[in-house]
Hints:
Blueprint: H1 3-20, H2 24-40, E1 51-55, H3 56-59, E2 64-65, E3 75-81, E4 88-94, E5 96-97, H4 98-111, E6 119-122, H5 124-130, H6 137-151, E7 154-159, E8 162-168, E9 173-177, E10 183-190, H7 195-199, E11 204-208, H8 209-213, H9 219-228, E12 236-237, H10 238-244, H11 252-268, E13 272-277, E14 282-287
Parallel strand pairs: 2-5
Antiparallel strand pairs: 1-11, 3-4, 4-7, 6-10, 7-8, 9-10, 12-14, 13-14
Helix pairs in contact: 4-6, 9-11
Amino acid sequence: MDKKTTRKKADIVTNDVFQSFIPVSMQARAAKGQELINASQMQLPFWDETTRRIPNELVRSALFNARNRNRKRIYLRDADIEVIGDGRIQYTGEELRQFDEIVWLELIHLSRGQTAGKVIEFTPYSFCKAVQWPLNNNSYERLRESLTRMQATSLSVYSKRLKAGISLSMIPIFTWKDENGKTLSKYKVTIAPQLIELFGDTYFTQIEWQQRLSLSPGLATWLHGYFASHRTPFPVKLETLYKGSGSTTKDLKDFKRQTKEALEALFKVGFLKEFEIDKAGLVHVIRAQYR
Length: 291
């Protein structure tokens, strides 16, 4: 046996002997500490009540489109969703709109700081109150419809930072009735653990919640999210916003008018300091503030 092998075996024996002298209580605390570290790595970070968060790839895409709410929703199968900038999204399910994004933003908010895959419970009353909907059965039904819609989905997101991409259901589990068909006092929802990787440490957009809730769901809320995803928004073509928002307006001139009205709404709620649509069709905005 050579000297190197002898030293390695000696090191192993020494370590084993040293470990045997560590009190069991200390070993247990160390193991518990490692468990806490692992758990913290498998949960969304905690943020305050004034904001909501969404991954950049999603807020810069037509996943939650800005189409007319009265237009009949269509079912998509392995559809390529328009993304502005880096990224590619494929989606299967009933199309989602800005109304659904509000629900999803609140769900993610409720799951912040929680271990991935943990069941989130809430009453329809508390949820509708948080998103400032009328507290009645119509709102509860709209909430159930949106949650059910997002449960029956398959979403795949690819970008440079996501080496192999991420695939998930937007809401893996949603339960609002018991085995006897009786309505539960609290709805139960599970958020996909893969969302943690999708958010990353910095790849998310913070949404000013009161600003969002004061806007009518549609192009204004979509632009609110898109421009919030840039600290200093750069000029962007109307055609790019048209595709990114998923608009189905046939006339680009009409879309320009809609965009101007939406930008005026963003100015009124204090999100924008200045905006302009120049003759070349470039949209310029200056944010009033950002976090």
